[in-house]
């Protein structure tokens, strides 16, 4: 049954991708990209990779869709007609696709218990993680403890992304009368958003601090919390969103999250351990692991929230200025 579901979802993915290729309406393309992300999330759920599905749904179908829609507000929704021949791009795509398919021929069978990944690292995590880290959610143990260096690097990459966006676009403030949102007159949206936003923020806090026991963690929580404030900005307008959480404050938050994560590693070195060795944070190594993971996940959540919202502010303010001009 699981294989049948995978085949159906893969067929839907292929049809969605083909439709995206031939569409000229960029708004429809963005919507289909969101559907593509949801289908990918369903495939991950069927593969029991719920944490990955959570991230794909929140980032791919959520924040990415909103940012692409804001980009369309600056560029227009119709794709320009190309004057170049499509033969060479088609040839490159076919050759690349053939090379990728050829490369899969030497891969071990999908899901086979004798595959190398199931013989070395995975059994080590499964057998030793409950004793060394003590968290019910093994994914969090791997990402936040065993691969703490990688997660720190990913957090720095996210922080670097906002630096690049702000360097290119910046966040431009304009007079409130010029930035009034077209949704400000919709009373139904006001009422519904005031009900939904607190619930979304509460859910983000749950995902943040329940990541040790179930799917979730700092990355997903940061994206969900940012989505709540993005909804606030879309309904009530950017000036009111700036009054609640300003761009400058978000820039400080983004840096503070990275520093909070790195400070855990520095403190563990101060206590005589290695960088990001959580065992030294408390007399009981398991308790130290818990303290360290909670703190670094909080740092990830703060950085991701600030980065996502700041990027939206940058694109949104540019789109508003383009509409005014």
Architecture blueprint of SSEs:
Elements lengths: L1 H21 L3 H21 L3 H26 L11 H17 L17 H12 L5 H9 L1 H21 L18 H23 L8 H19 L1 H7 L2 H24 L14 H40 L1
Helix pairs in contact: 1-2, 2-3, 3-9, 3-12, 6-7, 6-12, 7-11, 7-12, 8-9, 9-10, 9-12, 11-12
Structural class: mainly alpha
**Range of strand content:** under 5%
The level of helicity is over 70%
Order of helices and strands: HHHHHHHHHHHH
**Rg of Cα set:** 22 Å
Strands, count: 0
Mean pLDDT: 86
Distance between the termini: 56 Å
Describe the structure.
- The chain is 74% helix and 0% strand.
- It has twelve helices and no strands.
- The longest helix has 40 residues.
- It is mainly α.
- It has a domain of 188 residues.
- Belongs to the CPA3 antiporters (TC 2.A.63) subunit B family.
- It is found in: Cell membrane.
Protein traits:
single chain, mainly alpha, 12 helices, globular, CPA3_antiporter_subunitB, transmembrane, MrpA_C/MbhE
In a few lines, what is going on in this structure?
This protein is mainly α.
């Amino acid at each position: 049954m699981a294989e049948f579901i995978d085949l159906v979802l893969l067929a839907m993915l292929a049809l969605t991708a083909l439709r995206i290729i031939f569409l000229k309406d960029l708004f429809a393309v963005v919507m289909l990209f969101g559907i593509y992300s949801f289908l990918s999330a369903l495939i991950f759920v069927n593969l029991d990779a719920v944490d990955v599905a959570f991230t794909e749904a929140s980032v791919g179908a959520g924040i990415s869709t909103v940012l692409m829609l804001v980009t369309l507000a600056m560029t227009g929704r119709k794709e320009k007609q190309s004057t170049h021949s499509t033969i060479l791009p088609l040839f490159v795509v076919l050759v690349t696709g053939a090379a990728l398919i050829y490369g899969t021929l030497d891969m071990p069978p999908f899901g086979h218990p004798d595959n190398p990944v199931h013989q070395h690292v995975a059994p080590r995590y499964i057998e030793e993680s409950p004793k060394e880290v003590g968290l019910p959610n093994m994914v969090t143990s791997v990402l936040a403890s065993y691969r703490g260096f990688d997660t720190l690097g990913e957090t720095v990459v996210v922080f670097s992304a906002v630096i690049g966006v702000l360097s290119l676009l910046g966040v431009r403030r304009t007079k409130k009368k010029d930035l009034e949102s077209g949704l400000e007159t919709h009373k139904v949206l006001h009422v519904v958003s005031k009900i939904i936003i607190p619930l979304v923020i509460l859910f983000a806090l749950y995902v943040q601090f329940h990541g040790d026991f179930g799917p979730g963690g700092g990355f997903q929580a940061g994206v969900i919390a940012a989505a709540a404030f993005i909804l606030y900005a879309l309904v009530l307008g950017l000036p009111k969103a700036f009054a609640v959480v300003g761009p400058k404050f978000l820039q400080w938050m983004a840096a503070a999250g990275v520093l909070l994560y790195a400070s855990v590693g520095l403190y563990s070195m101060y206590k005589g351990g290695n960088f990001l060795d959580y065992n030294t944070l408390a007399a009981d190594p398991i308790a130290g692991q818990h303290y360290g993971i909670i703190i670094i996940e909080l740092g990830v959540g703060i950085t991701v929230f600030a980065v996502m919202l700041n990027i939206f502010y940058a694109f949104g303010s540019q789109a508003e200025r383009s509409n005014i001009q």
